[in-house]
């Protein structure tokens, strides 16, 4: 076996990638938030959340490599590094960077060919969706909300996937902000002014409540609310910067956009 033999994944996306590459036997610990693939929750011990981790439990697993995501996990990484553990914290935020992440993770575990083939397949899927979306007669304006109190707009890869699926994110300037706090809507009336045709909720860790969104003051004037175009995409499908977003997540976005477009032609 080439590369690390005992890997702890602090977030879901490396777990999903390694399972997809057939390298799951290397994984000795996963995030408690992991839902994809479902079998991972049965097979692997859960040793971390997102901003916290059971450092002692991780060390007992004797990992030779730990994979995490973003500056938010910097403290976890620092604690493990002080114990001599090799840690890789990726910080990918765009569709292109997610594909590159898959290739790099594959290279790190000695599965270059499988990782490249897997990333190429995901890329082809995105291109097929984009080609289909190009035939739409109209592009809907889309408001994506990843939290409701306070309202937080979508991150970069989500905005890019909306575009690939045939829509246009109404807050493209906010999507470039990597941290959620920079994507908080100080004035939710800005959504009214930008008049989205579709509203998509993906409230991380809780069920989207379209009736609560529709009841916000003044939001009855929004085309999406007026036309009943409020949809949920479960957060594990779209808010993880990994394969789920580039497959099932974008497929859900494309379905919502196509159905909106079909109603426009009736």
């Amino acid at each position: 076996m080439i590369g690390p033999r005992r890997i702890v994944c602090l977030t879901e996306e490396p777990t999903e990638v390694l399972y997809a590459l057939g390298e799951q036997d290397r994984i000795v610990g996963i995030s408690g938030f992991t839902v994809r693939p479902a079998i991972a929750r049965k097979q692997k011990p859960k040793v971390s959340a997102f901003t916290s981790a059971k450092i002692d439990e991780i060390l007992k697993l004797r990992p030779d490599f730990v994979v995490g995501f973003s500056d938010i996990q910097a403290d976890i990484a620092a604690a493990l590094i002080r114990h001599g553990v090799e840690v890789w914290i990726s910080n990918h935020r765009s569709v292109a960077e997610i594909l590159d992440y898959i290739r790099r993770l594959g290279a790190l575990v000695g599965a270059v060919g499988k990782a490249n083939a897997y990333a190429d397949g995901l890329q082809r899927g995105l291109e097929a969706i984009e080609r289909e979306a190009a035939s739409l007669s109209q592009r809907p304006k889309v408001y994506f909300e990843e939290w409701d109190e306070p309202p937080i707009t979508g991150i970069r890869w989500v905005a890019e996937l909306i575009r690939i699926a045939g829509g246009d994110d109404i807050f493209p300037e906010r999507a470039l902000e990597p941290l959620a706090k920079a994507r908080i809507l100080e004035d939710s009336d800005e959504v009214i002014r930008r008049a989205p045709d579709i509203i998509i909720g993906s409230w991380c860790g809780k069920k989207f409540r379209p009736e609560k969104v529709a009841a916000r003051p003044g939001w009855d004037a929004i085309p999406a609310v007026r036309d009943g175009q409020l949809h949920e995409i479960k957060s594990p499908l779209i808010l993880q910067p990994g394969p789920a977003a580039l497959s099932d997540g974008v497929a859900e976005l494309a379905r919502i956009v196509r159905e909106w477009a079909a109603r426009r032609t009736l």
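The mean pLDDT is 96. The longest strand covers residues 141-148.
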